[in-house]
Amino acid sequence: MPLDVEFVRRQFPALSSGWALMDNAGGSVMPRQVSDLASDYMRRYQVQLGASYGLSVEAGELVADGRQAMADFVGADPDEIILGPSTTINLELLAGSLRGLFEPGDELVVTHLDHESNVGVWRRLAETLDVTVREWTLRPETASLELDDLEPLLNDRTRLVCFTHCSNIAGQILDVAAITERVHAAGAKVCVDGVAFAPHRRVDVRALGVDIYALSLYKTYGPHVGLLYVRRDLLQQAASRNHYFVDDSKLNLKLEPGNTNYELAASLPGILDYFEALESHHFDLEAVPAKGARSVRLNRAFELITEHEERLAKRLLDYLRSKAGVRIVGPEGHDRATRVPTVSFTVEGQKSSSIPPRLDPHRVAIRYGHFYAYRPIRDLGLMDNDGVVRVSLVHYNTEAEVDRLIELLDSVL
């Protein structure tokens, strides 16, 4: 059964605005399952946690349920899940906590493809230590990274390799499991930015084998919260960034100074409630095995999402390839194995900044710029062009919306 997009859209109140929202890589809207839980918490449980009275105990259980839901979401244990304000802040805190794992002469690798949150933080850390930064550069012709180019950067002093699961500019999916296997063989650890990947595909950190994985839940149909997974053995070695008297036997507290946001954490089970509602609408629940049922249901929901998003990407990419003077940045094909429906392009003779404002009056929301992936835009020679035009679709977008976009683009390209 194909994805029932009308069912999907009924779950998202913000989609009733009349706007075709195609700036989703910057932030998705949330389903009612999430907003209802946040509102309910603020109405009933606006109390401090950790007290003996009943209301505090109940509120603490709701926040713990949110952490458990996110552990289930990415295939981890709850105390390996850090909930913070954003991926940028989460990685900043993590870098400080890992200072003690580096010795003079050690090396770390960063890329020229990532969002700056997984680049700048590690460069700043290296500046304060006697640590060498090596650069895994993108190939201009594909705007992507190749494992062969990483190979000469690895040696017995490499301690950490930081890279993206999917470029928020090019939309290309990297083989994280293969890269991680190679890095581990060299004796180093990996830190993966999964922000642009997680809205489109199921994340399973155990299957990927990663040490650190970051994603932004506000781009994954949730509230403005960043999720950071740190593998247990690494988190045990990390220094606490919390108050010295806080019991860090609860490992996640090492990287949650001042606590997480309670009402937003309490809303996080709503993300899984939405995916499970999506799955049950399309599949026979009796066919789900009791063991690992939540994982099976998430996988099936994302299979529906992937198939629908591939159709959306094909529609848009076929059009862009047909236009003279249009350069697609990243894979030109729509194959679900290699890309997500985040599509960036430039137009010969036009600044990228000139195109989205001409669609604004028609209530079609796209965007231009570097999208905090400053280095790849610079290295691709696109900074003077005001970056790229980016159309970032997700599964609640419709084929009719893509057709609406194409019609408008046809009048301006």
What does this protein look like?
The chain is α/β, with parallel strands linked by helices. It has two domains: 5-29 and 309-407, Aspartate Aminotransferase, domain 1 (Alpha-Beta Complex), CATH 3.90.1150; 35-270, Aspartate Aminotransferase, domain 2. The chain is 38% helix and 14% strand. It contains 15 helices and 13 strands. The strands form three sheets. Strands 2-8-7-6-5-3-4 form a seven-stranded mixed beta sheet, sandwiched between helices. Strands 9-10-13-12 form a four-stranded antiparallel beta sheet, covered by helices on one side. It has a two-stranded parallel sheet with strand order 1-11. Helix 8 links the parallel strand 6 (189-193) and strand 7. The longest helix is centred in the last third of the chain and has 29 residues, at 293-321. The chain is globular. It starts with a helix and ends with a helix. The model has no long low-confidence stretch (mean pLDDT 96).
Descriptive terms for the model:
413 residues, alpha/beta, Aspartate Aminotransferase, domain 1, Aspartate Aminotransferase, domain 2, 2 domains, seven-stranded mixed beta sheet, four-stranded antiparallel beta sheet, 15 helices, 13 strands, 38% helix, 14% strand, globular
Estimate the global geometry from the Cα principal axes.
globular
- Helix-and-strand structural type: alpha/beta
Mean pLDDT: 96
Instruction: Estimate what percentage of residues fall within beta strands.
Output: 5-15%
CATH domain class name of the largest domain: Alpha Beta
How much helical structure, as a percent, in the residues? Answer: 25-40%
Distance between the termini: 36 Å
Radius of gyration: 22 Å
Number of E-type strands: 13
Low-confidence stretches: none
Number of helices: 15
CATH topology name of the largest domain = Aspartate Aminotransferase, domain 2
CATH architecture of the largest domain: 3-Layer(aba) Sandwich
Order of helices and strands: HEHHEHEHEHEHEHEEHHHHEEHEEHEH
Could you give the order of strands across the largest sheet?
2-8-7-6-5-3-4
What's the number of structural domains? 2
CATH superfamily of the largest domain: Type I PLP-dependent aspartate aminotransferase-like (Major domain)
